[in-house]
């Protein structure tokens, strides 16, 4: 999801959002702005990718 990268990155007009805040934001828009199936699958990937690792690192 482009929104993940956009919100997790620093911008000239605002700092990057934390992972938890972005996840809550994406979930809040599930069904209105984002397909709920895509949100579910995307968050599964994100949670598996970062499971047990500090934010910002990958497997």
Question: What is the H/E string?
Answer: HHH
Bulk shape: globular
State the share of residues found in helices, binned by percent.
Answer: 40-55%
- The helix tally amounts to 3
Rg over CA atoms: 12 Å
Residues in β-strands, percent: under 5%
Largest sheet composition: none
**In whole angstroms, how far apart are the ends?**
19 Å
Q: Got a strand count?
A: 0
Q: What is the total domain count?
A: 1
**Which class do the helix and strand fractions yield?**
mainly alpha
Runs in which pLDDT lies below 50 for 5 or more consecutive residues are none
What is the arithmetic mean of pLDDT? 88
Fold and architecture overview:
The chain has 59 residues and is mainly alpha-helical. It has helices at residues 2-8, 19-28, 36-50. The protein has one domain (2-50). The two termini are 19 Å apart. The protein is globular and about 30 Å long.
